[in-house]
Amino acid sequence: MTNYDYIVIGAGSAGCVVANRLTEDSDTTVLLLEAGNPDTKSEIHIPAQCLSLLGSEVDWAYFSQSEPYLNNRKIFCPRGKVLGGSSSINIMIYLRGNAHDYDHWQSLGNPGWSYLDVLPYFKKSEHFSRGASEFHGVDGELSVTDLIAPAVVSQHFVDAAVELGYDHNPDPNGMQQSGAGLYQLTIKDGKRHSAAAAFLLPVFQRPNLTVTTGALVTRLLFEGTRTIGVEYLQKDMLHQVRVNSEVILSAGAFDSPKLLMLSGIGDAEHLQTLGIPVVADLPGVGQNLQDHPVVSVAHEATQDLDTASSSSVAEAGLFLQTPGNLDAAPDLQFLFGPVVLAPPGYAHSGLGFTSFVCLTHPQNIGRLCGIRLALVKWALTQWQWSILSCGYMGLRDCELLMLPSCPRSPREIRTHPPS
Ligand SMILES: Cc1cc2nc3c(=O)[nH]c(=O)nc-3n(C[C@H](O)[C@H](O)[C@H](O)COP(=O)(O)OP(=O)(O)OC[C@H]3O[C@@H](n4cnc5c(N)ncnc54)[C@H](O)[C@@H]3O)c2cc1C
Hints:
By secondary structure, the protein is α/β, with parallel strands linked by helices. It has ten helices and 22 strands. The strands form seven sheets. It has a six-stranded mixed beta sheet with strand order 11-2-1-14-13-12. It has a five-stranded antiparallel beta sheet with strand order 7-18-19-20-17, covered by helices on one side. A three-stranded mixed beta sheet has the order 5-6-8. The structure holds flavin-adenine dinucleotide. Flavin-adenine dinucleotide is lined by residues 9-15, 33-36, 78-81, 85-87, 89-93, 95, 216-217, 250-252, 255, 259.
């Protein structure tokens, strides 16, 4: 069996960075295993075509279970299945998250997670087109740029929000997140700058880095409760590799807990009902998955607008607090883009624009945050597992009601005439 010092599972946003940093030491050997294929699909690299990737072969294209609070609809949950992972199919907005959220995570007992702790790493990884500052870096691998040619309607969105009393915020990754402004994007020379393009491609030739694509990791291997390697499936063949030091599980928010459960780490009772031998009884595995629901409202333009997008589907945005929110962090995010994003089956023609409303702090009924990953099928052989079913527990009514009850609703901003 081949040995590596580290095995990294999943070449997504996290896995590409980890593989890059670990192989800086030429004495350290790293195997990076990715279920998807290399990122050769041309649409990956053309920012304006990012929506065409959803549901394609580079998307795991998960669906939730029927959502009782959403009229039992199954909600589409895209996830990248390709080198670069979701960073190869996402809409490229560069947003770090709110500083208060990091501080909150630290206060829950996670030393090293305060915003002041993580800020140096954001700066280290970034090449910001506006130059270095207290909040930005220029020496990093990831290109972060302003929009080169924002659509006129995107600027109108920002102007209208400001006229309605919101702060103009030219940098949501800077001193404060609240306010309206044009977004920064992870684009380089007009092309998507995914984690693979930024962190993997430049170090691909390192002799101590092995990148294996089309390799679906099926389980972790153990001696007792110690991980000693992984098993993966490639071209219908099962392989096993051993690790000297650590296995890094970076397969994403859905697949990391799934893989733990398939390996026998999870709620013992649940695993036993699935016939999975228990290695460690950890009931928290698969729980507390928080996703931010987005509602979009599309408009066809009634006048000749310059809505051609050369960048992404969302060019502008606004962070704000709903009335009664006493937290330091905004709980709503609006996004605005110069494309008509209509659901399948809704005919539309011509140009237009779409606004999106997004909850930044979703809460779920009866649980702290709640999504439970449930394995609904355990097939005959260990590697033939197939179905991951992620069941959203349902969003609290008030969360969805909160959206239209917001005093400065997206509709008000959209209908506010530019001066
Ligand atoms: C449509 C969409 C739009 C988004 N837009 C934005 C945005 O504009 N800005 C932003 O900041 N964030 C955005 N996000 C979120 C962001 O892309 C993700 O949070 C981030 O990429 C997650 O990184 P990750 O490393 O945890 O997982 P991923 O990047 O998803 O990587 C996980 C990798 O593991 C691989 N994998 C999974 N299971 C296995 C297995 N068993 N064996 C081997 N490999 C496996 C997957 O194929 C994948 O490549 C968006 C996400 C999506 C889906």
